[in-house]
Design goal:
- The chain contains 23 helices and 16 strands.
- By secondary structure, the protein is α/β, with parallel strands linked by helices.
- The protein folds into 2 domains: 319 residues, no CATH class; 152 residues, IlvD/EDD C-terminal domain-like (Glucose Oxidase, domain 1, 3-Layer(bba) Sandwich).
- Strands 9-10-14-13-12-11-15-16 form an 8-stranded mixed beta sheet. Strands 2-1-3-4 form a 4-stranded parallel beta sheet, sandwiched between helices.
- β7 and β8 form a beta hairpin.
- α5 packs across α12.
- The longest helix has 19 residues.
- The protein is globular and about 75 Å long.
- It starts with a helix and ends in a 12-residue tail after the last helix.
- The model has no long low-confidence stretch (mean pLDDT 92).
Length: 602
């Protein structure tokens, strides 16, 4: 049974969402009553839809005698996590045909790599790509000839975008199909050390590139616990993977078997009249489970934005207060880089998702009473897949952690509260991931140094102007200003200054994401500077107090003084062109603030 504190917050979400959820479910039922019914399409519609299909399938296409799976894929061969998807459609089609069904690639969605665009102009498109992916998913499924959906995606904005888009077709069963992480490479601690040495000028670019290439070296998801792997954890905790799918390597024979199982399950759900469709499956219980999983694993701060937008697409309203209140009760039970030194392969070996879910269920932190793609109850996800002689079988996962340095029981956690926290004060509201921040660095009170670009910060660093205690204020990085880029370009320099003994922190209306590490960083500051938030009134020398323990973000300036100050102008506003940024001007004008999900959709 779920703990009363969890139940109380769940009920609060349910009560708050009553009107919007009812409206969503009404629309779902209407769509369900209208289709998909291929027999209702004209002969011309149908002929176009199956023109390229094998002749033996064309005769059955109008009759609906065969289930038709719609595949929405984020495949490209530049993005390592998605390169394995190249062969999935053919595999899925073959499995479907052997089962008397069929499958078609409904459409592709863009899949950009934040690792490639970090610190570059293209990063300004990253957050908006989520909404583009959601709309692309809607376009892919708009042909209305599918009985179930398989979403092929893994990384940052891609899974949230697929999720939001699929909810617009929530009257269908939907399964998410991952590809798995790459093998472990250069240890994350060593990678971080080499990056700091480069920032300090101790090594050359060739040495840095060799280290980066040893970290990111093959097909599969990057192995640190960033947004991509947080996404996979969430899909498992929300019951939209087949159990155990998240962290099986791409080249494993077991990976092919799990993909086959997902295909067969999608066919089974499409054929059953008792199937609960995706939009009904995702409810307040499953959304709370997602937040609990995020907090218990020390996951990506990006999900404090994405989950709000994902929930909103299902008519559910969650807030940062929900995250913060849950964090006060949910224990941190995993240590995966940057929250520890292990990678996701080691987490998987230590017990992985099956044990992670089991211990949280056992201690009452997760709702067991949820609908999943495997049936009723989250208990399905305490099992692991194994290859039998003729078929895939599931059996109970680990009953205890194999490595207590990586994964602990919810009864004996690393810390009694979650890895994320809400900060609030006269600057506004912000999020901090403090699970990777040493306790000695969780409170910083120091003068502000204000910047309006990452490059300006790095110029000051390279000139030796930042060897002192300070809080860097990097503003005009919010969604309305420039699309809210991630700011990891700052991490090596800030980490080096902290190692030298200086008290440093970051306050920004931009993002840091799942790789947020040892530097205390108040991110997603709302209201943002472009919305005339207080962050736009901070000047060099103002004292700021960031207290991650108490949840305070305070500018030590009197209200009377603040009232006399002008709001700073966005000096970088003229730079929102190049790398396609000019095409997103309308999205920057329309986007909501970070606390409302930074979404361009109503």
């Amino acid at each position: 049974m779920v703990r009363k504190e969890i139940e109380k917050i769940t009920k609060r979400i349910s009560d708050r969402s009553q009107e919007s959820r009812s409206l969503y479910l009404e629309r779902l039922q209407f769509n369900k009553s209208q289709g998909p019914k291929r027999s209702g399409l004209s002969c011309g519609n149908l002929a176009h839809a199956c023109a390229a299909s094998p002749d033996e399938l064309k005769a059955d296409y109008p009759t609906e005698s065969r289930v038709n799976l719609g595949i929405v894929t984020a495949y490209n061969d530049m993005l390592s996590a998605h390169q394995p998807f190249e062969t999935y459609p053919a595999q899925i089609r073959d499995i479907a045909a052997q089962s008397g069904a069929m499958a078609q690639v409904a459409g592709g969605v863009p899949a950009m790599c934040d690792g490639v665009t970090q610190g570059q102009d293209g990063m300004d498109l990253s957050l908006f790509s989520r909404d583009v992916i959601a709309m692309s998913t809607g376009i892919a499924l708009s042909h209305n000839v599918f009985d179930a959906v398989l979403c092929l995606g893994v990384c940052d904005k891609i899974v949230p975008g697929l999720f939001i888009g699929a909810l617009s077709f929530g009257h269908l069963p939907v399964l998410f199909v991952p590809a798995g992480p790459m093998p472990s490479g250069l240890p994350n601690k060593e990678k971080a050390r080499i990056r700091q040495e480069f920032a300090a000028g101790k090594i050359d670019r060739k040495t840095l590139f060799e280290a980066e290439s040893a970290s990111y070296h093959s097909a599969g998801t990057c192995t640190f616990y960033g947004t991509a792997n947080t996404n996979q954890m969430l899909m498992e905790v929300m019951g939209v993977h087949v159990p155990g799918a998240a962290f099986i390597p791409p080249e494993s024979g077991l990976r092919q078997e799990v993909t086959k199982a997902a295909t067969l399950q999608a066919i089974k759900l499409a054929r059953s009249e008792d199937t609960l469709p995706f939009g009904e499956q995702i409810n307040e219980n499953s959304i709370v489970n997602a937040i609990v999983g995020l907090l218990a694993s020390g996951g990506s701060t990006n999900l404090t934005i994405h989950l709000i937008a994902m929930a909103k697409a299902a008519g559910l309203q969650i807030t940062w207060d929900d995250f913060s209140d849950l964090s006060a009760h949910v224990p941190l039970i995993s240590r995966v880089y940057p929250n520890g030194q292990a990678d996701v392969n080691q987490f998987h070996a230590a017990g992985g998702m099956a044990y992670f879910i089991k211990t949280l269920l056992d201690e009452g932190y997760l709702h067991e009473d949820v609908s999943t793609v495997m049936g009723q109850g989250l208990g399905h996800y305490t099992q692991e897949p194994f290859r039998g002689e003729d078929t895939l079988i599931w059996r109970p996962g680990a009953q205890a952690s194999v490595n207590q340095d990586i994964l602990k029981s919810a009864g004996e956690p690393f810390q009694k509260t979650g890895g994320l926290k809400l900060l609030s004060g006269n600057i506004g509201r912000a999020v901090i991931k403090f699970s990777a921040v040493d306790e000695t660095h969780r409170v910083v009170e120091a003068p502000a140094i204000v910047f309006e670009s990452q490059d300006a910060f790095l110029t000051a660093f390279e000139a030796g102007e930042l060897h002192r205690d300070f809080i860097a204020v990097l503003r005009f990085q919010g969604p309305k200003a420039n699309g809210m880029p991630e700011l990891h370009k700052l991490t090596p320099a800030l980490g080096l200054l902290q190692d030298l003994g200086y008290k440093v922190a970051l306050v920004t209306d931009g993002r840091m994401s799942g790789a947020s590490g040892k530097i205390p960083a108040a991110i997603h500051v709302s209201p943002e500077a472009q919305d005339q938030g207080v962050i736009a009134k901070i000047t060099d020398g103002d004292v700021i107090r960031l207290d991650a323990n108490k949840g305070d973000l305070e500018l030590k300036v009197s209200p009377d003084e603040l009232a006399t100050r002008d709001v700073a102008q966005n000096l970088t506003n003229q730079q929102v062109f190049g790398s396609g940024r000019e095409m997103f001007a309308g999205m920057r004008e329309r986007v909501s603030n970070a606390e409302d999900g930074a979404t361009t959709m109503s």
